[in-house]
Amino acid sequence: MLLQEERMNKRIYLQSENNIPYIDLYLHERAKKESIVLVIPGGGYFFCNPREGEDIAYNFLSRGFDAAVLQYSTNKGDLYPKQLIETAKAIDYIKKTLGYEKVFLCGFSAGGHLAASVATLFNKEERIKEYDCRPNGCVLSYPVLISRRFENKITLDNLCGNDEALRSWVSLEDRVDSQTPKFFIWHTFEDEKVPVENSLIFASALRKNNIAFELHIYEKGPHALSLATDITAEREEDVNNHASSWFDLACDWIKNCL
Q: TM spans, by residue (predicted)?
């Protein structure tokens, strides 16, 4: 456990005071500002899962990384591209105002979709082109990534409403191109809420475009494992000692990207 004096916390509102979106910072006292991990919680685009926020940031902090957690809009009717713009603003702020050279994203479930959206749409979506928002790499945890056959319907309903064309646009395997950054992706075969095909199909698209990635598929475990340890567990099945290895692997992967 980190002592209070070993880190500094600060909330940054990106739009207006006491309002979403905002980022919470978890920084080392003598931060070098070379790199930071922006954590993006999941929650189906209808809430930001607290199990995928602060505890993740503290774990990155304990591994020597500065970290931040994004709280983005999840009210009913907050459709695309609102959350995408908020994420782009957060990355731009971290780079230009805080002065970090490299920004890595760590997204969970719907937050994985949001992270991958920025990573694949930064050069396609006109409404975020004004922001310096291309991440240096993305860690995706059991991410929602595709529509149609293997989609997580509630997530895409909350993001797209009844707009079928938009649903197709945010099926991100079709948005990968030669400028897409590299990815670390993990999923479980047993995930019943977000089928593992989301990660497999997206990884195949990365391969087709010659984008480097690391992919880990664990056999056991339900959706939303978070750290897969006692720290973030709500139920007994949320503890999975084997799948919990994802975090150390992801940290090593980020270090290799620096």
A: none
